[in-house]
Amino acid sequence: MQVLKNRRAMIILAGLIVAANGFFPALWILFTSFKTEVELMRVPITIIPQAPTIENYIRVFVDQPILRFLFNSVVVAVLSTLLCVTCSALAAYALVRLRLPGAGVILSVLLAIAMFPLISMMVPLFQVMRDLGLLNTWWALIFPHAVLSMPVCTLVLISFFQDIPRDLENAAMIDGCTRLGALWHVVIPLTAPGVFTAGILAFVNSWDEFLLALTLSPRVASRTLPVGITLYQGEFSFPWPIISAALIVAIVPICIVIAIFQERVVSGLTSGGVKG
Amino acid sequence: MSDTIRHRLTPLEKSERRLGFAMLAPAFLLLAAVVLYPIVELIRNSFHFNHLAQPWMGTPFVGFENYVKALGDDRFHEAVLHTVLYVLVTVPGAVVIGLGLALLANQPFSVKWPVRLGLLLPWALPLVFAGLIFRWFFEYNQGIANAMLRGLGLEPLNWLTSPGLAFFAICLAIIWKSSSFVALVLLAGLQTIPKSFYEAAEVDGATKWQQFREITLPMLRPAIFVALIFRTITAIQTFDIPYAMTNGGPGNSTETLAMYIHKTTVDFLDLGYGSALAVLMFIVSAVITSVYLRHTRRDPGRH
To answer: pLDDT, tens digit, for every residue of A33-84?
Structure first.
């Protein structure tokens, strides 16, 4: 009985360590965001805000156009996700089902190209986007972000498509469906969890991307959230309560997404790496 | 059926092939526009003089001059050294911590979401945010790191303004941020190990440590390899976290290759030289990517 009790305590402790490791930094920022600059100066430091204030949150919305950053991030992430999943799904289906010669080599080439380091593409992409007049537009980020997630989306979708029996599509095609019709009406609905998973991964990758967003959208109004957040720091000052509040505003949407879709995200991350 | 007509394609197979290549087209068109064309431009740039601050010089062909310049550029050598150090510290660091987290998370919890979200949150957080949060932790006056030192009766440290400590603080942030992804990959690996292996070992009187060394680690090898390669590919490109924490300082002591390329092109406006550096970086990561691809190459149509 005692052994069993100890074992339960150990399990709970293990869970607490993992949860604390993940949540602590965000919690600390949350506490900071409700403190005043004066309270921050106190020695020894306080943990829980002594006199909570929402002043910092007001400043977040007044000092910078954070809703604009949020809007840019949402548009870029949603459109690049749609583009990425569409291209990846078509490619994955062709590689799994259509008996292409050298499908393995084609997949390797696709992955190799899509894994080029972003920093190497930064300067030429800047020149291309400038020449096309796309700097500071959503498109300058949508296309590169779609490529960013193509390897993981393709691998996830391949592993899901492989589990669909060929007979189902054959039956649909006997009933008069075309190949693409079978993909759209039979395969996609059956692999909806996989398509969804790929979509969430692409969304998070785009939402988090910093280097290209920094370089290809130099104008303030076209900044995405990760870049916009860095604008709250002055040249010599670092208003930590305001930066913390801005971080919380920026973290909340992505937290909601991963909290709702946690199981899908976990299965997607791991099927791309281990199973796929 | 396909055995008897292996070398002659039926009309159906022919049309399937055509359709197959057509379905690959959007992905490859996108790759051509966003990656291949820029890479060609990058290589072309790297053989030309192209300095936006000296437009009167034009963009003459200079051969390997930019590459020769890199050979004698101390700041480039230091950036390479820092990048290598980040890889050597943070890749094994993230794998060890990630393995620890995965082992802790691989328990029969009655409530699963706190652990799952505890692993997902660091992964989903933008790198820049992680960098800002850790910069706040290591702030001299108000940061939590120095608060703890003071609590222990020790002198506070200049975490972000002395080279060695800044490197340490940045490594800590990178390891925290990336170990959760490693943990998720390893956790999936752990869950494929049959319980019966451990039961059999238990019967044979193996200790927990022996079970870990003789069962867990060998069975986890493929997952660890995948995590190592993915981490290495991203670690070579380290940019966001040092950018947010120190911006390469103090001096250039925490500057990575990616940051130096960014500064050379965006701040110093030397596109030719920056491109040559980017080509060098691209070659290194291509070699590592090819190791990964050789490991995972398979025919997706055969299963």
So the answer is: 998 888 887 777 778 888 888 888 988 898 889 999 999 999 999 999 999 9
Residue type at B219 in one-letter notation: M
Q: Hey, where are the domains in chain A?
A: 64-275
In the chain, the amino acid numbered A3 is V
Say how far apart CA B69 and CA B85 lie, in whole Å.
23
Q: How far is A259 from chain B (nearest CA, A)?
A: 7
End-to-end CA distance of chain B: 18
Q: Which of B132, B224, B270 is the best substitution to test chain A (most A C-beta atoms within 10 A)?
A: B132
- Please write the tens of the pLDDT for every residue from B144-158: 898 889 888 888 888
Give the pLDDT confidence score for residue B2 in this predicted structure: 45
Give the burial string for B142-164 (b: 16+ CB within 10 Å, else e).
bbbbbbeeeeeeeeebebbeeee
Which CATH architecture fits A64-275? Orthogonal Bundle (1.10)
Which residues, numbered 93 to 112 in chain B, qualify as contacts with chain A under a Cβ-Cβ cut-off of 8 Å?
Answer: 101, 104-105, 107-109, 111
Q: Residues B256-285: what's their mean pLDDT?
A: 91
d(CA A82, CA B208) in angstroms, rounded, equals 47
A137 backbone φψ class: left, alpha, beta (φ>0; ψ -120 to 50):
beta
Q: How far apart are CA B236 and CA B245, in angstroms?
A: 18
Please spell the DSSP secondary structure of A208-228, one letter per residue.
Answer: H--HHHHHH--SGGG--HHHH
How far apart CA B245 and CA B170 sit, in angstroms, is: 7
**Per-residue confidence band for B60, with pLDDT thresholds at 50, 70 and 90:** confident
**B window 69-98, beta carbon within 8 A of A:** none
Mean pLDDT, chain B, rounded, equals: 87
* Residues of B with Cβ-Cβ distance to A258 under 8 angstroms: 117, 120-121, 124
| Chain position carrying tokens 């000092």 | A63
Q: What is the residue type of B272?
A: G
Q: Answer whether A8's CB lies under 8 Å from B111's CB.
A: no
Question: Cβ contact (<8 Å) for B132 and A128?
Answer: no
The shortest C-alpha distance from B218 to chain A (Å) reads 15
A83-108 residue pLDDT tens: 999 999 999 999 988 878 888 888 88
- Mean pLDDT, residues B177-202: 89
The pLDDT of residue B155 = 87
Q: What is the pTM of this model?
A: 0.89
Largest Cα–Cα separation, chain A: 77
Q: What sign results for the dihedral spanned by CA atoms A99, A104, A108, A109?
A: negative
Six-digit token string for B120: 């997902």
Any idea how long chain B is? 303
- Report the candidate in B106, B119, B224 with the shortest Cα–Cα distance to residue B181: B119
Least confident of A180-189, B270-279, B283-292: B283-292
How many inter-chain contacts (A to B, CB under 8 Å) are there? 310
Q: What angle do CA B165, B169, B173 make, to 5 degrees?
A: 170
pLDDT tens digits, one per residue of A206-260: 999 999 999 898 888 889 999 998 888 877 778 888 999 999 999 898 889 888 8
Is residue A266 within 8 Å of residue A274, measured between CB atoms?
Answer: no
Return the sign of the alpha-carbon dihedral for residues B8, B10, B14, B16: negative
